[in-house]
Amino acid sequence: MEVQVGWPKLLKMGTQLVGHKIQQFRLATGHTVTLDTKYGQVRGLQRKTVYDEEPYFAFEGIPYAKPPVGELRFRAPQPAEPWQGVLNCTTYRSKPLQRNMLLGIVEGSEDCLHLNVYVKTLKSEKPLPVIVWIYGGGFQKGEASRDIYSPDYFMKQPVVFVSINYRLGALGFLSLKDPELDVPGNAGLKDQVMALRWISQNIAHFNGDPNNITLMGESAGAASVHVMMTTEQTRGLFHKAILQSGCALSEWAESPDHNWAFRLAKNLGYNGEEKDADVLAFLSRSSARKIANSDQDVITLDEVHSFLLFAFGPVVEPYESDHCVVPRRHKELLAEAWGNDLPLILGGNSFEGLFSYQLVIGDPWVTRNFHNILPRKVSEASSREEQDALVRRLKKHYLKNELQERMDTFEALNIFSHRQVWHDVHRLVLARQVYAPNTPTYLYRFDFDSPHFNQFRRLVCGNKVRGVSHGDDLSYLFYTILASKLDKSSMEYITIERMVGMWTSFAANGSPNCPKIGTAKWEPIRPMESGKEQCFNISHELEMRELPEAESMAVWDTLYPKEDLF
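Given the sequence above, the corresponding structure tokens read:
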């Protein structure tokens, strides 16, 4: 979904960006270091954290696969080729091709399969735990860069932090049914698999422990991590996982078959028949920039109204291949997933739906049409009379009046919070209790509502709206171009220390409990009493409490036949 931001805010952001670039340059010491990898030597740069100017080493723009261009466009990645000499990895390379969310311009490169490695120290008594970050952005946006995901807060801890680029939009997720063409889809997910293999083979050169890797992601990145927990392609490549505001059960994490490739080709001028080989030939000749500029425009307004937010995302692959990552619907893979043996942190933010603020205020249709709120699979399996009954059930719970004809903005956004994020997180909690009963699962709810530091909410909603939006947790894990430097006595800084402390403690030893959270204790989920799960609520205070959304989750449960919940 495009987010509209006014010019004053853009100009202010531009000023911040320039300041950030100057600051990042100032914090680079100029001291370089060269390390070996399986593919050749890399030169990194010593940098300093934004707080306390603590030194760490940054190796950026390391290729983990061949450039996915020419015959490799739309296809599974191939291993990187060795290089001669020392590769300069002192700054990050191009982001994946994408349309800028704010400016609408296309930026990035097809040659984007690089990763960044940041390490606190290159020498220690024992290798350091490794955290691998997969960015979100609806599989349409995102980048592994210090502009958005600077590791400063993590680099105050003894860890290795890795961020990876993967292909987006049609270039990363175009799917064709003809097995002769070898484009079944999910190339962007297969990029992640390739990156994990590279990390497993090479991270020891960076003082990282290849036997203690935590995979972590937010939104589409969280759904990606969840896929990595189920596909056999990654078995054994990581050892713990963190899912923030998303999972692979989410409706938006499985793209329906709406002839997207043909529709994209038509948008770009294709006049031929709906034949996979001809469509692929046309798209292979097309400009990658034109593809990236057009792949979000194939969706109709009716599809947007039914919560189909993007065309090109993860799919159930139409046939199995050597590189298949999603052979069946994710729900069908849960019971036997190898990731059931992995300790897991999962959760979300207390007002996830603020992400849709621009959509709701810009399109009053959304607040008057309740039937489209029903999950697609539920709606498709129900008669009109059954749909009417389910809508009345939702109205009664959320609006207290079955006859109410429209929602106000924040009523709609509250419902969207639960539809788009929280109920799928809840379904995964239920699944973990059945399929991973002896493996620690830690559920959190992020509820720290800063008036000035919840950067995503301020970007999308402006300064007058309050609440903890989808994406606001990232303000407390990463330094970004929108961040200001905080007083260390502020609750914002204390929240950064808590979040990074819990996440790095979990990466180190499988438990998020650490000195930074004082006497609070985060308990793993246990069998639920009366259907209400306990969560670790992260706000000004830290506490285990009944999930405030539990009552709503129970209502959403009733929309599904019991066997379809997970």
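The mean pLDDT is 93. Try to locate this feature in the token string yourself.
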